[in-house]
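Take a specimen:
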Amino acid sequence: MERKREENYDLLRIVSALAVIAIHVSSFYLKASRDEDVFGGLYTDHLLAACCYQALCKFAVPCFVMLSGAFLLSDERNADFGYFYKKSFRRIGVPTLIFSFLYYIYASRHILKVVFIKGKAFKRLLGPFMDLLEGRPYYHMWYMSMLVGLYLLVPVIIRVKRDISARAFSRMTWIFLVAAVISFETGSRSLSWDIGLSFYYVGYLLAGYEIKRRIGGRKHTGGGILLVLAGLGVEAIAAFMRYRQAIAGISDTELEYQYLKPLSPLIVAGSLLIFTGFSLIYVKRDFSKLASYTFLIYLIHAFVWNNLARKVIARRIGLEGDSRILIPACVILVFLISLLLAVLYTKLWNFFAWRLSSAAKNRKLFH
C-alpha cells in the first residue's frame, strides 16, 4: 500500500531540494571571498547576501532526514528487516550505487587530466578511489552514505518504539538530538559511511516522527507560517554570525564552533521550527509528481552546477555579477536541468526494467 500523500510535506521536499542547491551555489561565492583562485581576486561585493542564502537554506538536510523519519517510522511494516531492506535497496541503494560509480568515473577522468596534462603529482591518482572508499565520491554524496546508515537503523528503532511508551520514546528523541549536538561539536568524523555519523542524525529522524505524531493531522496555516518565519529568523542569526566571520577572513573549518553545520544549535532550532511549521500548513495543490523526483535531483544537481550551469554563466554573464541575483538564477537553472535529467533517468530505468522483466517472462514460458 502506498502512503497517503500529504501535500505540505511534498512541498517541503521541493523547497528543501531548492535549498540544497542554494547552499552549494552560495558556497562558491563564500569561498571566493577568501580564495583568489576563484575570481582572480577577493570577491566581497554582496557578501552578506551570499551568507544569507547559505544560512537560510541550512534547514534542507535536517528536514530531509525528518521527512524520512516522519514516514518510515510510522509504517509498522518497516520493522520487518527483510521487507524494509529489500524495499530500501531498490529505492535508495541502487541509485546511490549507480551515481557513486558515475561520480567516481568522472572524478578519475578529471584527475587523469590533471596529472598527465597539467603535470601534477602522481599521488593524486589515488584521490578519487580514496574518496569512494570514504563514502563521498563527490562532495554531496556524503549524505547518501549517512542515509544508508540511518536506514539500517530504522527497523531497530521501530521495534524499540513498540516496546516502550510514547512518552519514553518522546524523551529518547530529544535526548538523542541534544546528545548529537554536543557530540557533533566536540567529535571528529572522517568516513561518511561510518555508522557513528548516522547516529548523529538519528535525533532528526526521531524528531520527524515525533513532530508528525504530535500534530496528528491538525492544520493551522497561520501558525505554521509564523513558525517557518521564526525558523528562518533563527537561521538569520547564523547568517549574520557567518558574515562577521567571513569579513574577518575566517572559514567555518577554522573555528571549533561551526555556525552553519547541520547539527549546530542555531541550525537545529531553525530546522525544527521550519519542519513543525510545514507540518501545520494546509496545502491544497498536489505537488506529489514533482516531489517524487527530489531524490534524483539531489543526486544529479552537484554535477549540473559544477560542470554545466557555472560554466555557462561564467561564459555568458560573468560570475563577478551581482550575486544577489545570480545565486537565485543559478538555483532555478540547476533545479530545472536536474529535474529534466531526473525525468530522463527515470524513463530509461523503467524502460530497461521493463525489458528485463519481459525477457525473464519469456524465458519462463520457453522452459
